[in-house]
Hints:
19 helices; alpha/beta; globular; 4-stranded antiparallel beta sheet; 492 residues
Amino acid sequence: MDRIREEKIRQFAALGVEEAQIFREIMRARHLDYVLFHQPDSRSNREYGLSQEDLQKAAQTLTAEKFGGVPDDAEQYAHIYTLALSVDPMMFAGADAATDAVAALAGKAVAHAEAAGQTVLFAGAEQYLPCLTDIFVTLRGKRIAVAVADEAWKEPVAMIYARGRAMTMDEIPGDTERYDYIFYAGRADGNSAAYWQALGAHLAEGGTMEALLPDALLRSDKEAVQAVFREAAARCVVSSLYHVTDGEEEKDFVTCGAPDPSGRIVFGELTADGGVRTWDRAALGREAFAAADSWDYDLYAWNGSEALQTILAAGLLDPDFAVGSIFREVPALKGTLGTYAVIHGDAVTDSCVRTDLVKEEPAADVKRVSAGDLAVTLRQGRLCCAVVPAELEGAAAAGDVTVLRPMEDYTAEYLKAYLDGPIGGLFLSSMTAGGACRICPSRLLRLPVRRASPEQIGAVTAVVKRSTAALAAAEADWRKAKRDSVGLMMGR
Length: 492
């Protein structure tokens, strides 16, 4: 993509268009193309075309006030116009790239919209603007509406995708259209719940709405937000709720349709790496879901496991006493550019943080570790954690390492024993899909953990220190033995 972009910049520059003006010329060309060739009264232009001179005059007359003048040389402008139409407009729009999950689900939404009726709405589109061209190309026979939360994007979207209809999210309540399919990507703000509710009111009979919502929104304790989700549950319109880990952010993919009190709602994990896939964890009647009055995905996932259901029912764990009750995540600190000993994920093993793999290197916005922290990473799809030793005090953790710092009397050794043990393993398995643990810091901090007395914590800590030290020494001996064996085999 970078190579293509650089080539387009070079081609525009040869025509006298600076990089900062490329998006302007793309909007102008798209707007002209629609006005001159796609409006109902443009049949003559479609059939007979326009000369370069006529195109230049039309561009000057129709767009100069908004976009500025065009070159006097008709041939030069014709080349600019043609080049501008050949480029994916969002390549130069300055829009943020869609996250992996948003991009994958927006792509899947196109297929769902293709199979739906004629009217489709893509809302919260500022989160997947780079996907809009594919949406309009694939759904060329549909009536497409696009809604953005940021009003600054409304006009560019309207001009570039002129055969669609652009509006802001705030205009949704006054919209008179009914949609056969709606896709919505929400944000972690107070408005997203209200937007989602307003969108549902515009669903046509037999239509479907799919929404990717921040998990924090579904867990919100704000009464106005809770009321929105409580009302949706009471209407029995929700058919599925899938948890998505999108980088370090948790989201939920919620599907709604026609009310069905006798129907069921399915809970599961959704992954977006290598295509959208889902793994079902549990199911519940929609009326029972409404009565439960909870949108906490964890509760349904845990109850989908007989073993976890038994543990929780027996009161062996308090769901409100979680890892986050006794540990905090060490954040990355802005403005910390420098050279540090950096702990990458490959240095974190089941036995220790390997100091021989920790090297000095430049790093920015670092997470500074302290002795006794727990370093956590994912290796081959499973959680791997180790206690930071004293010699790495002040080192930096790389982006693929989460650092948890104990509070109160609990120790990193105690948490490691719990996470590596059978009960912690059960919770982690409920978060595993496609052979990989789908976890991020916020999800890890919500895991219920066993309360313990100072004596129990001390005993567990001593056992873990002793056993991991022995294991680390044995692993170091084995690595040395393998190196020495090579020399012996080679006759050195």
